[in-house]
Specification:
Helix 1 links the parallel strand 1 and strand 2. The protein contains 7 helices and 7 strands, in the order βαβααβαβββααβα. By secondary structure, it is of the alpha/beta class. The site of flavin mononucleotide has 15 residues, from helix 1 and strand 6. Keywords: Flavoprotein, FMN, NAD, Oxidoreductase.
Amino acid sequence: MKTLLYVDAHPLTAAESKTLQVADAFVAAWQTANPTGHIETLKLSEANIPTLDKDVFGTWLKQKKIGLGAPLAMSADENALLSQFNTLIDQFVNADVVVFANPMWNHFLPAILKQYLDDVLQAGVAFKYTAHGPVGLLSDKQIIHIQSAGGVYDHTSMRADFGDAYLQAMVEFIGLSIDDEYHTIFIEGADSNPAQRDAIITAAKTEAQNLAVTL
Ligand SMILES: Cc1cc2nc3c(=O)[nH]c(=O)nc-3n(C[C@H](O)[C@H](O)[C@H](O)COP(=O)(O)O)c2cc1C
């Protein structure tokens, strides 16, 4: 049984978001094509995604010291924090298909999605350091980036859509293939060309549905 993780990085609902309308169409088509598939939805704005603050680093430091044999007991709060990270990391690592759905904000991803990636793409889990540089540890995972932007972007230019360029870099960094394991659906230009809004959404939904049935 395959698992799809739908990482929803939009604070609103599909009724208000082009991104989520297209992402929902992708997920529904995937479920039809994979009737036994399991879907997990992670709405980041409602999921209490931890920020990497002083408490988190303090807990990680303590965990390392305990690992080295220091007699430090974890507090209930520290254990809860570690378990929260483990849950998020396991969910990402175990998913066969991961859908990232976000609006473009100031040429990048919403900060909460960057925060989520900082939480789950950790050394020892997603990649490891070696004498010859970092090596990705993940494999057999399909990543889909669904993103809506007001304008229309040249995705071959690093100076336009930093969010997608960054996701691509991270996907390669953790061991996946951009050619075979990374797919994009862009919903672009509805703000600059409102007369085309419905046509832009419909075309992106069709593209998403056609992709979903192949994964
Ligand atoms: C804070 C903010 C920043 C934005 N920055 C950009 C941008 O850099 N480039 C762009 O084309 N559109 C930008 N937009 C417009 C949105 O990306 C665009 O309206 C998108 O279609 C929203 O998707 P949605 O319908 O899912 O909310 C921005 C919107 C907001 C609210």
